[in-house]
Amino acid sequence: MAIIFEDTEFCYYANNKCELTLIDSNDLSNWDQRWFINNDLDNKIIRWKEKLTHKWEGTFTEKWYPTIVVQDVTSGPHVLRSTVDCRALDGDGNIDRDAQNLLKENEKQRLMTEKGFTEV
């Protein structure tokens, strides 16, 4: 059965943060609560619902293009979006974290070489 979310519960606080609760209306044991900064809440909720759907259904997206942070010696921090799919699954279709981390590290090294960065 597809995940159908109940209405999102919002709780706003004075420190510009918002506590959100998402509940699967088909299975009340599927719920999650997160804190977010108030800006761009709609997009954060959409991405969060996608992640929870994959978690609760036991499925994963087919591709993963990680965000890679590099702290360059001279120019400081840089955030780079991978152009290479770094998703790695084991024989049962579950995420293979070790293989995935290796792919991400290789992609980081490639991006650093391409951009001429030297990490701190």
What does this structure look like?
The protein is of the alpha+beta class. It has helices spanning 41-57, 97-115; strands at residues 9-12, 17-24, 27-37, 67-72, 76-81. The protein folds into 2 domains: 9-57, no CATH class; 67-115, no CATH class. It is built from 2 helices and 5 strands. A hairpin with a 3-residue loop joins β4 and β5 (76-81). The longest helix has 19 residues, at 97-115. The termini are far apart.
- Give the low-confidence spans: none
Count of structural domains: 2
Per DSSP E runs of 2 or more residues, the count of β-strands stands at 5
Structural class: alpha+beta
Ends distance: 48 Å
Percent helix: 25-40%
Biggest β-sheet, characterized? 3 strands, antiparallel
Gross morphology is flat
Features:
two-stranded antiparallel sheet; 2 domains; three-stranded antiparallel sheet; 120 residues; alpha+beta; 29% strand; single chain; flat
